[in-house]
Amino acid sequence: MKLLRWTLASLLWIVGGLLGLVGVLLTVTLVLAPVGLPVLYLARKVFGLAGRLVIPHPVRHPLEELQQQGQDVGKKARKQGKKARRSGRKARKNASKSMGKKASKAKDAVAERLP
Hints:
The chain is built from four helices and no strands. The longest helix is centred in the C-terminal third of the chain and has 52 residues, at 62-113. Helix content is 91%, strand content 0%. Helix 1 runs antiparallel to helix 2. It has a domain at 12-55. The relative contact order is 0.07. The model has no long low-confidence stretch (mean pLDDT 81). It is rod-shaped and about 120 Å long. It has 115 residues and is an all-alpha fold. The chain crosses the membrane at residues 12-43. Keywords: Membrane, Transmembrane, Transmembrane helix. Residues 65-115 are annotated as: Disordered.
């Protein structure tokens, strides 16, 4: 994929160079200057596109990458929180059952000691 992007970027760079050369020649000819200026603007856009193809996405958009990483960390934290809540509920149920059994045994023991 990287090789394809670099190949396309190099072709766009060549096209941009040719457009720039034609734009300069048209602009130098004063009669064709109104046509040459938009061609130069187009050449500039093509050069920009070629540059964007070469530079990786995290370098072009560092804030978006940080936001994506933050969202991933948040998702993992939410999943861990859900798991902890579930296991906490199970532990609470188990503890209440065992405490209930212990309480009933203690109640029976106290009842046996009383006359």
